[in-house]
């Protein structure tokens, strides 16, 4: 499957959801009317409907002949779904672009660390002097980054290792002595510790909110399924009544069915809109939690304090 097709499938993933369980299709089967469902879902639904007399398609409401129609496994759709799942598992966006070693003359090996004193990035081989030579003992290393210049004062070309609480920004020692004279300044590492405590507290408040939203989603899913099941049972009941009551009751029965379907549509649309909103809130909270987690792991105090 081409990357273009995979991207298209991912964007339209809702088209591959089972209308009964609302999840990605599992062991998809195609019915005579052309709609597809999970094998287990449609069989379970029909076992309930069989006791009420007759089977219908949950999507188009088409009545199906008895005995049960043959459910053929949709091989092509099953293969597409398998590839879609595999592609999603392999898709892991990089948190930062790969940084090349500044001292490799050929091949440009990937850097593993950046030095805030040398303002350069090193691969494992060229990094060894920083660990073995005592003259590099005072150098501060952090994970390889392309943003080294952002850690240095553009005026004095010194590290931004002081935090000005008055102006809420990181400055170098010279800036602290002259441009920020009289301001409340502390080492950037000390301010980092304070900010990290606040960040951890924020993360702690995010997690229970995520759990609460997830529980609300599950409750809503159950309510939605219950309502759909009730609506289908109501349609079946009216269909059975139509076969007994002839002309007048047939016309009246059609009106009842239309009313039920209209109510179903309104309630389903409302529930699905609420479900989508809750899922978006969960994604946003998880993303926020992930960003905060990555922020707490960075070794760059200045970057942490200015984010």
UniProtKB/TrEMBL annotation:
SUPFAM superfamilies on file: B-box zinc-binding domain, RING/U-box
Protein name per UniProt: E3 ubiquitin-protein ligase TRIM47-like
Zinc-finger recorded as keyword: yes
Keywords, in A-Z order: Coiled coil, Metal-binding, Zinc, Zinc-finger
Lineage: Eukaryota, Metazoa, Chordata, Craniata, Vertebrata
Coiled coil: 256-295
One Pfam family linked to the record: TRIM_CC
Gene that this polypeptide is encoded by: LOC120043929
Signal peptide limits: none
Domain RING-type: 18-61
InterPro entries according to UniProt: E3_ubiq-ligase_TRIM/RNF, TRIM8/14/16/25/29/45/65_CC, Znf_B-box, Znf_RING, Znf_RING/FYVE/PHD
Domain (B box-type): residue spans on this chain: 148-188
SMART domains reported in the protein's UniProt record: BBOX, RING
Organism name: Salvelinus namaycush
An example molecular function term from Gene Ontology annotations: zinc ion binding
Keyword NAD recorded: no
Top-rank taxon: Eukaryota
């Amino acid at each position: 499957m081409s990357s273009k097709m995979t991207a298209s499938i991912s964007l339209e993933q809702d088209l591959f959801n089972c209308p009964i369980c609302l999840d990605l299709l599992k062991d998809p089967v195609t019915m005579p009317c052309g709609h597809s469902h999970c094998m287990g879902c449609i069989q379970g639904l029909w076992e309930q409907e069989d006791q009420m007399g007759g089977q219908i398609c949950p999507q188009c409401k088409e009545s199906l002949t008895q005995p049960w129609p043959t459910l053929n496994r949709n091989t092509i759709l099953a293969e597409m779904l398998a590839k879609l799942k595999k592609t999603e598992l392999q898709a892991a966006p990089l948190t930062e672009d790969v940084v090349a070693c500044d001292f490799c003359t050929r091949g440009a090996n990937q850097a593993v660390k950046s030095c805030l004193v040398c303002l350069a990035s090193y691969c494992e081989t060229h990094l060894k002097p920083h660990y073995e030579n005592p003259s590099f003992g005072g150098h501060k290393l952090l994970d390889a980054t392309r943003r080294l210049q952002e850690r240095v004062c553009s005026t004095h070309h010194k590290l931004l290792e002081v935090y000005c609480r008055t102006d809420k920004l990181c400055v170098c020692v010279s800036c602290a002595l002259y441009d920020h004279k009289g301001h409340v300044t502390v080492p950037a590492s000390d301010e980092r510790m304070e900010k990290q405590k606040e960040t951890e507290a924020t993360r702690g408040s995010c997690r229970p909110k995520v759990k609460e939203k997830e529980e609300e989603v599950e409750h809503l899913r159950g309510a939605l399924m219950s309502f759909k099941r009730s609506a289908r049972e109501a349609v079946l009941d009216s269909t059975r009544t139509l076969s007994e009551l002839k002309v007048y009751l047939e016309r009246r029965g059609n009106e009842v069915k239309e009313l039920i379907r209209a109510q179903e549509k309104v309630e389903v649309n409302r529930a699905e809109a609420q479900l989508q909103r809750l899922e978006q809130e969960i994604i946003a909270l998880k993303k926020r939690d992930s960003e905060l987690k990555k922020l707490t792991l960075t070794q760059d105090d200045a970057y942490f304090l200015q984010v």
